[in-house]
Each structure stands twice: as structure tokens, then as C-alpha cells.
Write a structure and sequence with these properties.
2 domains, mainly alpha, about 230 residues, Helix Hairpins
Length: about 230
Amino acid sequence: MTAQPSASPLQVCRNCGGGAPVDVHFCPQCSQLLTLGRRGDYFTFLGLPRRLTIAPADLDRRFRALSRQFHPDYFYNASSVERRASLERSSYLNDAYRTLRQPAACVEYLLGLEGFAANGPEEAARLVPPALLEEVFALNEELNEIRELRAGGAPADAWKARLDEARQPIEAKQAAHEAQLEALSGRWDALADSGAGGSERIEILNALRERVLERNYINNLLAAIARELSQ
């Protein structure tokens, strides 16, 4: 899989017909708020580079500044086109903020932009390392045995101890996995800062993609244990 080149489309002002880059919110010709006909992406919308490490204070500042510009209250007496643009941009801004402020969601969003999102559950299963799939099968067998113990009237301490024991290696794997994601994010950011591309860019995106697929499996394993503990 190769990285997709990012396009730089123009958005057209519905008031005067002028064009503006996707990172511009008001028409340079007539100053009207632009509708989201051809949108760019969350990073561009907020004036950010495609980095995975975003300072929360900077993100909050940009969000508040744009919120003040787009809020529908300020366009109450404006034309219907501008009122619609205000609602569109406010909604898109909220989506962008919610996504980019969460590291996991930010990684998945970046992969989608770059053309590296997983194409359905079949591909996800194919790309997850066999060792991790073996852990899924082993845990399912353990959970079945624990359910039988619980149904047979075994003391709670007995089967809960087995659940705790099953959870520990998965939590250790989760911690190691998060460290790998953090390191890969740092490599991506350094690459984005330098403007470099090519094979290293594709290598990092593929690695990030694999970590995201693995994380979903790890989270599902821990969720399964949590469900059993709540019984």
C-alpha cells in the first residue's frame, strides 16, 4: 500500500463565486463565511500540521478561537447561506476537536487520511499477528472454564483469582503496545516536521496501522475479562 498524495482543493463562495483554499473560513473577496462544500481535513481546518502529538493547550486555543468566529449566535440575522455555513463549520469544528484531542482517535483519523485505514474486519483479522490470535483463543478457553466454575457454584475468590491471573499478561502487553505507538507517533511527527516522504513514510504508516489493529484486539480481551468480573 502506498500513501495517497494530499490534494489542495479550492472551496467556492456561494455569495460572490470567488475561490479560497480549504484552510480559509471567510471569503477573501466578499468576507462572507464559507460553506463546507469541499472540505479539507481536521488538521487543515484547525491550521495544524499532520502531527500525532498536539499540545492540548494549543488545540484548546484554536478550538476556542474558531468557536467564537463560527458560533450560530453571531449569525442570527445573517443570510440563510451564512447561517447554514455557521452550523456546518461549528459542527465540523466540534468533530475535529473531539477527534484530535484523543491520541487513539487521532492516529486512526490520520491513517484514514493517508489511505491506510483497515478495509473491514476480514483484513483486520488477517493483519493481526498469529501470536495475538492465539492469546484470543486461549483467553476464550479460560473464560469458558471460569463460567463453568461459576455455574457449578465455585467460590467467587477462586474464579476471580483466575481472571486476575489472565488479565495481568494482557495488561503488560497493552503497556508495551502503547509505548510502541508513542515511539511510532514520534517518528511520524519528526518526518512531518522535516517534510520528508518516500519509503520511511510508508513504513511508519504501515506500522501504525498494525498497532491500531492490535490495540483493538487487546482492548477486546480486557473488556471480556471486565465483563466476567462484573457478573
